[in-house]
Amino acid sequence: MKQLNKWQTAIFFIGALLMVAGAVLSILRWSYFSYVYAVGAIAYVAMQMLQRYEGRNFTIRRLRRIMLLSDVLLLFVAVLMFASQGNALGLDWIYYLSYVRNNWVVVLLIAAILQLYTSYRIGAELEKEANK
């Protein structure tokens, strides 16, 4: 995997911290929590896209695709956060409460589980590949 330089690693970690801060600020009912999360998600996903794998290992390539899917889900969480702040979609109130309001938590959980799984497995596969 291509390693990030010093600045890219800093942006990566700051993006991750902003995503966590945005999720925590939503609990505290701060009105700009979705902006904090969105900036963090864009920074995190952008830096993760720069980490490319040019090898031939099929397992790592598959795990990388799963990681990219979770990146898309992390960005979709930002959209759902903005939508959950009010009925901006113009939906009927019952549909809004059922399908939109605070459902970003479920998508965030799925994305976080996929990130955790792929990070662990890619690390193990890269170590196994290096030992060959």
Describe this structure as you would to a colleague.
- This protein has 132 residues and is mainly α.
- The protein contains five helices and no strands.
- The two termini are 16 Å apart.
SS-based structural class? mainly alpha
Distance between the termini: 16 Å
Helix content: over 70%
- The pLDDT mean sits at 91
What spatial form do the alpha-carbon principal axes imply? elongated
Which residues sit in consecutive blocks of at least 5 with pLDDT less than 50?
none
Major sheet attributes: none
In angstroms, what is the radius of gyration?
Answer: 17 Å
Number of helices: 5
Q: Give the H and E element order.
A: HHHHH
What share of the residues does DSSP label as strand, in percent? under 5%
Number of strands: 0
Q: How would you briefly describe this protein structure?
A:
This protein has 132 residues and is mainly alpha-helical. Helices cover 77% and strands 0% of the residues.
Ordered list of secondary-structure elements with their pairings:
Layout lengths: L5 H22 L5 H18 L7 H27 L8 H7 L4 H28 L1
Helix pairs in contact: 1-2, 2-3, 3-5
